[in-house]
Design goal:
Elements: E1 8-12, E2 33-35, E3 41-43, H1 44-54, E4 59-65, H2 69-77, H3 89-102, E5 105-110, H4 116-121, H5 124-127, E6 132-135, E7 139-142, H6 149-160, E8 163-171, E9 179-187, E10 191-199, H7 203-209, E11 219-229, H8 233-242, H9 254-264, E12 266-270, E13 274-277, H10 281-290
Parallel strand pairs: 1-4, 1-6, 4-5, 8-12
Antiparallel strand pairs: 2-3, 6-11, 7-13, 8-11, 9-10, 9-11, 10-12
Helix pairs in contact: 2-3, 8-9
Keywords: Nucleotidyltransferase, Transferase
Catalytic activity: alpha-D-glucose 1-phosphate + UTP + H(+) = UDP-alpha-D-glucose + diphosphate
Enzyme class: transferase
């Protein structure tokens, strides 16, 4: 475990977005537009980067397919050469703001798309043996609390000095789409010591193995989409990759998280806020309706 400041965030954005095909044949899902609270249309990835910055993150590594490097670099690091003079003064200012964000961003590549765990592992050298924030590339977050969702998770890490998984309460009928956990409450309805992590359980399994004391029937704690992880996670990912240990044909993160839990412990934190998943057509449609509101 480490009490180093969390200054880096990793955002995997190298998937194919098959569940949003054929739109993702021409637009990366991380570049799908949303309307932010300020009324600005922006790609999802910008909202995720801004969430990280709101938590005090100083450097952000975005993991992309090799062929998409230029696409993401152009978004954050290059002003629109022909369009710039046609932008309103407000949008010219925002274009400059994007380049300021770009100064904090490093584009990393995943040359072979071999699963979420493999994408995270591609950031190992860049993370450089520090605790880091991991954020999903197809989730955006909102809260009315004083601290942003990401900042809440960092504050918990600073309190417990071990890896943290952010959590949300989901009904049983949709947990087959999510990573779920169980554990013992440290602070009721807020912090808990995680005792089991399981990826996309069916309802019968969750009822038997993932119940959490005090929660309503058929309600479960599922991953919200923000993690603070110690660099030891890379040891388990490297072992799985070196020994070709795959789940559902790919290198996954969840089983490595469970090993991290066994060795160092992981705290779960129920975030005061909402997460919006744009990785499925219906979820993206609902995000377009709800996110600004």
């Amino acid at each position: 475990m480490s009490n180093h400041k969390v200054s880096k965030a990793v955002i995997p954005a190298a998937g194919f977005g098959t569940r949003l095909f054929p739109a993702t044949k021409v637009v990366k899902k991380e570049l799908f537009p949303i309307i932010d609270r300020d009324g600005r249309a922006k790609p999802v990835i910008i909202s995720i980067v801004e969430e990280a910055i709101s938590a005090g993150i100083e450097e952000i590594g975005i993991v992309v397919q090799k062929c998409d490097r230029t696409l993401f670099e152009d978004l954050f690091k290059s002003p629109p050469p022909q369009l710039f003079n046609k932008l309103s003064p407000q949008n010219q200012e925002y274009s400059q703001y994007l380049q300021q964000l770009g100064s904090k961003i490093t584009i990393l590549t995943q040359d072979i798309q071999d699963g979420f765990g493999h994408a995270v592992f591609c950031a190992k050298d860049w993370v450089n043996n520090q605790p880091f924030m991991l954020m999903l590339g197809d989730h955006v977050y909102l809260t009315d609390a004083d601290n942003s969702c990401a900042r809440q998770v960092i504050k918990v890490y600073e309190q417990v000095n071990q890896s943290v998984i952010s959590l949300d309460v989901l009904p049983g009928e949709i947990i087959h789409k999510a990573g779920c956990i169980t554990g013992n409450w440290i602070e009721s309805n807020s912090l808990l010591s995680i005792t089991k992590i399981f990826e996309k359980p069916d309802l019968e399994y969750a009822r038997k193995h993932l119940r959490v004391a005090g929660m309503a029937e058929d309600q479960f704690l599922c991953v919200f989409g923000i993690y603070i992880l110690t660099p030891k996670i890379f040891e388990y990912l490297e072992e799985h990759i070196s020994n070709n240990i795959r789940e559902r044909g790919e290198f996954q993160l969840t089983s490595c998280l469970d090993r991290l839990r066994q060795d160092e412990g992981i705290t779960g934190y129920v975030v005061k806020g909402r997460t919006f998943d744009i990785g499925l057509p219906e979820a993206y449609r609902q995000t377009m309706i709800d996110f600004r509101l």
